[in-house]
Structures are given as structure tokens and as C-alpha cells.
Amino acid sequence: MLKRLLATGLLSLSLLQTTMAQQVEPCEEGEACTLALYSEVSEKWQFINPSRAHQDFAPYSTFKIPNTLILFETGQINSADSYSIDLHRYPQQSWWFSSWREPAHKLKSAFDHSVLPLYQQWSADLGKTAYEQYVAEFGYGNKDVSGPVDRFWLGDSLQISAVNQVEFLRKYKHRQLGLKDATYEEFEPVFLQRSGQNVRLYAKTGGGMLPEGGARGWYVGIVEDAAGSHYFAFNMDAENFSQLAKIRVEKALASLRAFNVSVPAMKD
């Protein structure tokens, strides 16, 4: 069981975002990475490695975007309450990150730190039927939630491409997912990661180990500036998860800047 979690849950985190001393280069043609970008300003798609942008991969923790929306919509969670991990169902493990060991979490913290055991127990409590319904209605990836209800997004049955990630985000932004207005409004501050003068970045990381070795990671979201909204999905492969976590976000942002999409600086 531990080996299974280490290969999926532990490494599906949005943690370990280390600031790099050296300049991180954008994704380039021929590398094991891709960027799918749709700007409503130009109403055009732009790609780095377009064939990879259409390949389906496990969403890992980027599934926390639709999952949190589903959990809000069904009343499983809210932004005001604090939540504790049920240690009888998900006993504390030696590999848990310090942020997971806190006695309680607000939703924003659970989302940003990808507190896997909380999302697992919420998903298990909600049940498979709800996920079958909402994932199908969202048109999210291959819509296959046949894997275990508390980890089907962690390299199990659910798969999605960078292009479909962007299409899902556009539906979310335009409130075309069939959800209550209150659900979108409650989720927006959870999704927000950075803000600056006339620029906001909404985003989520995700990643995990690959069966054949190495790691794969995501960074997906929306940049809103004075001109409009830019929807992006970036993924890349790395030799190991540590290497992936060090450069994933900055490589994605460098790739956005290569297409003249500005992003706000990280706050201290």
C-alpha cells in the first residue's frame, strides 16, 4: 500500500516549488514537454509541441480543479470551515509533508498544498456515482472514473490532454459547467495563485511518477490581464520528481512569456 501511495498520491503534489537560481528556459520543440495556449484576445490557439498537446495523460492534482467544484456543488465542503484528516481511514505516514500534518486545514490550504488524504476522504464520502455524473457533464478528459474513487485521477483510469484541460477551463470561466453561480464564486479565491496590477493568475500543479521511470508534471490555469483571458495547460517529463518540482512552474511561465503572456510575480 505504501509503495502504491508513493507512486501516486505522494507524488501528485503541488508542493516543492523551489525558486531556481538559474534562468529556466521555456519548453522547446522536440523536448518532452508541451504548452497549449488559447487567448480570447486573439481567439487563436498556440502550441509548443502540438502533437503532445493532444496526448492524454493522468491529470494528477490538476483534477483538484474540477474536484473542488464538484465538492462545492454537492455541499461536501465550503471555504469557511476547517477540516481534519480522518487518521483512522488515512493513517499518517512517514512520507507525509509537514503541511499535511497540521491538525486542521482550510480549503485554500488543502488546495494549494494538495493535501491528498483530505481530498481522498472527501471523494470517498461523495461516492463514485457523483463523479460519473459530473465528469461526464464536464466533458473532462476520457471521462473514465472507473478506478478507485479516492485515486482514479492519480495515474489510474482518468486521462486528459493539454488541449482538453484548456477547453475545460474555458467552460469553467464562462460558467458553462451546469453549476450554481455560488459554486463558481466560492471557488475563484481558492483557484487564485498570484495577482498584480491588472494581472491575475489562477493555476494548479499536478504530477506523479511514471511506471517506466521518471516523472510527469502539469501546470494549468488562466491568466487574466487588461486584454482578456489566456487559458493554458503545460506538462513536462523529468528524470525524477524532485527535478520536476524545481522547474515545473517556472518553465511553464517562461513558456507563456515566450508567447507574450505576462504573469504577476510571486509574492514574498
From TrEMBL:
Its EC number is 3.5.2.6. This is Beta-lactamase. It comes from Bowmanella yangjiangensis. Pfam families: Transpeptidase. Keywords: Antibiotic resistance, Hydrolase, Signal. The keyword Signal applies. It catalyses: a beta-lactam + H2O = a substituted beta-amino acid. Residues 53-243 form the Penicillin-binding protein transpeptidase domain. It is an enzyme of class 3 (hydrolase). Residues 1-21 form the signal peptide.
